[in-house]
């Protein structure tokens, strides 16, 4: 394989985490890792011992009409030195060949993204793991959706300024990138811990429900219809539904290489998904990354606090 070009990796974070160390260790001469925070008050700006070679801090400032994540991505991409760009997050393990595998996949397919597999850290998020497997893993793969935790592309793959114009007035960074970039999802998952408390999980569920509302309104209707039919069938025919839903989730978990015991929660998760999705759609505000947002329309975002 030819030597990949110098690359900029964007990692929005406010503190130094294991993920920062893991990605920094994979840099080769010429690469840069940009740790994008808000301002001087973030712990990352005063990290003891300094930063490894190739690692820089970018201060994005406070978001005005978009999410903090979207604001960080814009600041990082404007600061990036290179044409090949990687987005990633600080909340999952990056094995030592992670960056090299993305380069190899890009050479074969063009823009690529990996798949998230969300692991619950509280009772509600654990219950919802089968729902996340369908919406967050299978959905990304089947619908060619970008996952912002692991995506590689080049500036020439999209109209960057048009992308910025949309991103700076909305919430979902990967939702907007999906609309501007043709991407190939790889059948390769990364385990992402989510939740921590029931409140955290409800906030996350509200954000996801509203992403579907504004980025895929037809998909929202189809999703609600299918989920309702599954729920009605599960209530009307509990034993067959229990068997079929559990086998389906077992097959899905196996297909993506994630054999966790939570596939056994397929039946109660199916019963919970419709009321929780409606709850997320009904919420007027939600919290993400310590900020509260009011998302009135796709390009109408208020940072409440």
UniProtKB/TrEMBL annotation:
InterPro entries: Ceramide_glucosylTrfase, Nucleotide-diphossugar_trans
GO molecular function: ceramide glucosyltransferase activity
Keywords: Glycosyltransferase, Membrane, Transferase, Transmembrane, Transmembrane helix
SUPFAM superfamilies documented for this protein: Nucleotide-diphospho-sugar transferases
Annotated pathway: Sphingolipid metabolism; Lipid metabolism; sphingolipid metabolism
GO biological process, one term: glucosylceramide biosynthetic process
Record membrane topology: Multi-pass membrane protein
Keyword Plastid tagged: no
GO CC annotation: membrane
Main location class: membrane
Intracellular or extracellular location(s): Membrane
Protein's UniProt name: Glycosyl transferase
